[in-house]
Design brief:
Blueprint (H helix, E strand, L loop, with lengths): L1 H11 L2 H22 L3 E10 L5 E10 L9 H11 L2 H22 L5 E5 L2 H4 L4 H12 L6 E5 L8 H13 L3 E7 L6 H6 L4 E4 L1 H6 L4 H16 L3 E4 L5 H9 L4 E2 L8 E2 H8 L5 H9 L1
Parallel strand pairs: 2-3, 3-4, 4-5, 5-6, 6-7, 7-8
Antiparallel strand pairs: 1-2, 1-8, 1-9
Helix pairs in contact: 2-3, 4-6, 6-7
The protein binds ligand C2E and magnesium ion (MG) (3 copies).
Length: 289
């Protein structure tokens, strides 16, 4: 019987699977090397208070100049990292860097700047997830109140109860939680109701469509109102045009993020973008970077 089974196994393990495994192993090695060689970088996209367009915070976004993956495709990088299991090490690196930046920037800014990072569901499922977040906070020496984790609805499709518990622990540490890409997937009210979130990010798809019809517009306005009624702040993603800005401002969306205000920029450009008043401190930082 064992022989039979072995034979079957051999049959399904064909040429194309072999090639796929080799590719995966190569990619995993490449990612491990890239981490060691500091070839990953973070770009930061600022988020602005809607009414007065003052800076609110920033989202950290992963970039990698890799020979095998297109630099402009972070989603491919994330997917590959999830498949090879490298996502945990990569996100530990992301947290360490973004959290350190959050400490540095808040030491010189004249107001609080929140920095959020994206977290993969694959990472949240790991038993050491909460520990990884906490270690990154300690290592960076940052006030957890300056930090946010962006999670997506897919996080909750598996192991809802245990993921929810982890997020509650994170929240108890004083870290902010953002529900990302709201409106792009299942968008269950259950998530808004039962997860310990502080912010809802309305997906670009909604922002793209909200001016198409009266109906689409009212849906967006209603999401904002609903979120406010349960004590959440609302961030609109992918705001590209002035009419979109005007609409979101009219319907009291708290925060906007998108090319209309700024694309994601490398860390060295953040200070210029924030237009801090020039002082010795700023000069110092600009030269250090
Ligand atoms: P996201 O978290 O929804 O991030 C927003 C994405 O929209 C970013 O794409 C940003 O560059 C883009 N964007 C912002 N404003 C505009 C706009 O006005 N117009 C257009 N067309 N695009 C805009 P990006 O940097 O390509 O990242 C794509 C996705 O990759 C992110 O979507 C996030 O899901 C994922 N990602 C990036 N970094 C990480 C990471 O460190 N960990 C994990 N798990 N995922 C990450
Ligand atoms: Mg995000
Ligand atoms: Mg998003
Ligand atoms: Mg998105």
């Amino acid at each position: 019987k064992a022989k039979e089974k072995g034979k079957n196994c051999y049959q399904v393990f064909d040429e194309s699977m072999h090639a796929e495994i080799i590719l995966k192993v190569n990619l995993e090695n490449e990612m491990r090397q890239a981490l060691k060689a500091d070839q990953f970088t973070l770009y930061y996209q600022p988020q602005y208070n809607t009414p007065d367009k003052s800076i609110y915070g920033m989202e950290a976004l992963l970039r990698w100049d890799s020979p095998s993956i297109d630099q402009g495709a972070p989603l491919d990088i994330i997917k590959a990292a999830e498949e090879t299991g490298m996502i945990v090490d990569i996100e530990k690196w992301v947290m360490k860097n973004a959290f350190t930046f959050a400490r540095e920037i808040n030491a010189i800014a004249d107001k609080d700047i929140k920095i959020s990072v994206n977290i993969s569901p694959v990472h949240i499922m790991q038993s050491d997830f909460v520990g990884n977040v906490w270690n990154s906070i300690i290592e960076a020496g940052v006030d957890p109140g300056f930090i946010g984790l962006e999670i997506t609805e897919t996080v909750m499709m598996e192991s809802f109860a245990s993921n929810k518990k982890k997020l509650e622990e994170i929240k108890k540490l004083g870290i902010n939680i953002y529900l990302d890409d709201f409106g792009s997937g299942y968008s269950s009210l259950n998530y808004l109701q039962n997860l310990p979130i502080d912010y809802v990010k309305i997906d670009k798809i909604f922002v793209d469509n909200m001016l198409n019809s009266d109906r689409d517009g009212r849906i967006t306005a209603t999401i904002v109102e609903l979120a406010h009624n349960i004590g959440l702040k609302v961030i609109a993603e992918g705001v590209e045009r002035e009419e979109q800005y005007n609409f979101l401002n009219l319907y009291k969306c708290d925060i906007i993020q998108g090319y209309y205000m700024s694309k994601p920029v490398p860390r060295g450009e953040v200070l210029k973008l924030l237009k801090f008043t020039t002082n010795n401190c700023l000069e110092q930082y600009l030269t250090d970077w």
